Amino acid sequence: MIQSEHTGAIDILSADLESADLLGDHRKVSPPLMAPPCIWTFAKMKEFKSKLGKEKNSRLVVKRGEVVTIRVPTHPEGKRVCWEFATDDYDIGFGVYFDWTPVTSTDITVQVSDSSEDEDEDEEEEEEIEDPVPVGDVERGSRSSLRGRYGEVMPVYRRDSHRDVQAGSHDYPGEGIYLLKFDNSYSLLRNKTLYFHVYYT
Prior knowledge:
This protein is mainly β. It has helices spanning 15-19, 45-54, 119-128, 143-146, and strands at 2-3, 10-11, 38-42, 59-62, 66-73, 80-87, 92-99, 109-114, 150-159, 165-171, 177-183, 192-200. It has a domain at 59-116 and 148-200: Jelly Rolls (Sandwich), CATH 2.60.120.680. A 5-stranded antiparallel beta sheet has the order 3-10-6-12-4, with helices on one face. It is globular. Residues 1-26 and 116-145 have low confidence and may be disordered. It comes from Mustela putorius furo. Keywords: Acetylation, Membrane, Transmembrane. Residues 110-144 are annotated as: Disordered.
């Protein structure tokens, strides 16, 4: 992305051109600013959990020390991604990021970043994933190497998802993959049961 200092116009370039040294200096070009998401809560916790408890792939356990990333590609028939989630008994960290990589599949995938397990197992899992997220969590660091590829829609912070169903939506900024981060890395003792529903409109 290049923003004109005179007109304020923005040109979005391909990833190859974006990383090229077009102006003779070594500045990294950052992605466009993201519009804020719409977020809300609703209180029908029992009904929400009961409905999702019956659906396949709508419930998972985020273990202590883990960060689970749900990768949601933009869909050619959609204009907005929507999410709803709740947990049993305890809160969980949640944030949304956008990966500007071209979409090759519309499949929603789940990736677990485990900070406390054996590193050898992590390496084996990374080899199986077709398009892994680069090493380092987006919300924790390594931002300089990821700046040209990721946009922050909503930073990770703790949500009272055990009290109310947390919901939100975001209009597509373009083609890419949403990264919905469920962060339980701050918990040393408790696993969190997560109920989630992701869809597009």
